[in-house]
């Protein structure tokens, strides 16, 4: 059985689509990237499972494909399939009318939210992030995530969609959920610091190799 592949696959796919969309808009690749992102955005507006073609689209776009251990076997999507679906549909929403990257491996999702807090005059951002953290179910959490991604898009703040997909998969595991949310809370606080202070925190607070999760 091949090793888990979700994080790399989502990051590589986001980078490929982003490069074609931003740097080669008039090429065949750019046209195809716009089409794929538009289809993914349509899926983002629907509840997962209501569109039978949505998962098929996500799995067909992923390059490389998910590993054998991450692909579902039955009638329900696997945790990795769900995570890839939500990460890429949110990425597509983030890329709507974009002129700058939405995906970067230099900043985590929560750190991007902290950075948004530091440059925003909105008093509602921290309560939104807290509501996402304390959501009682995944449907509510994803609703808050969509709002936060929209706010990040408005301020042209990118984050690592590969690591984000990994975290979305871990959030489906009750034994790992609290650890992810704790790390997100820490990253949010670090993101609020000045860039020089963030550099001092990086080695202690951001693991370089996230542990693999099954399926």
Would you identify the CATH H-level superfamily?
CRISPR-associated protein Cse2
> Strand fraction band?
under 5%
Radius of gyration: 17 Å
Our count of domains comes out at 1
Give the CA-CA distance, first to last residue: 12 Å
Report the sheet with the most strands, covering strand number, pairing sense and barrel closure: none
What is the mean predicted local confidence, pLDDT?
88
By helix and strand content, what is the structural category? mainly alpha
Offer a few descriptive terms:
mainly alpha, Peroxidase, domain 1
SSE blueprint and pairings:
Layout lengths: L5 H18 L4 H17 L9 H8 L17 H16 L14 H11 L5 H9 L4 H17 L6 H11 L2 H18 L3 H11 L10
Short overview:
It comes from Corynebacterium jeddahense. The chain is mainly alpha-helical and 215 residues long. The chain is built from 10 helices and no strands.
């Amino acid at each position: 059985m091949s090793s888990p592949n979700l994080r790399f696959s989502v990051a590589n796919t986001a980078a490929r689509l982003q490069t074609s969309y931003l740097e080669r808009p008039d090429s065949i690749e750019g046209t195809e990237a716009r089409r794929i992102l538009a289809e993914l955005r349509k899926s983002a507006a629907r509840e997962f499972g209501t569109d039978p073609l949505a998962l098929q689209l996500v799995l067909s776009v992923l390059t490389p494909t998910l590993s054998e251990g991450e692909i579902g076997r039955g009638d329900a999507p696997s945790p990795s399939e769900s995570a890839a679906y939500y990460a890429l549909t949110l990425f597509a929403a983030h890329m709507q009318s974009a002129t700058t990257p939405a995906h970067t491996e230099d900043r985590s999702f929560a750190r991007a939210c902290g950075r948004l807090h530091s440059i925003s005059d909105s008093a509602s951002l921290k309560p939104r992030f807290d509501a996402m953290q304390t959501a009682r179910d995944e449907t509510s959490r994803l609703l808050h995530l969509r709002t936060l991604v929209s706010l990040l898009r408005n301020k042209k703040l990118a984050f690592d969609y590969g690591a984000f997909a990994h975290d979305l998969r871990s959030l489906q595991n009750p034994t790992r959920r609290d650890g992810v949310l704790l790390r997100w809370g820490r990253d949010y606080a670090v993101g609020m610091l000045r860039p020089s202070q963030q550099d001092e925190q990086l080695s202690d607070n951001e693991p370089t190799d996230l542990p693999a999760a099954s399926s």
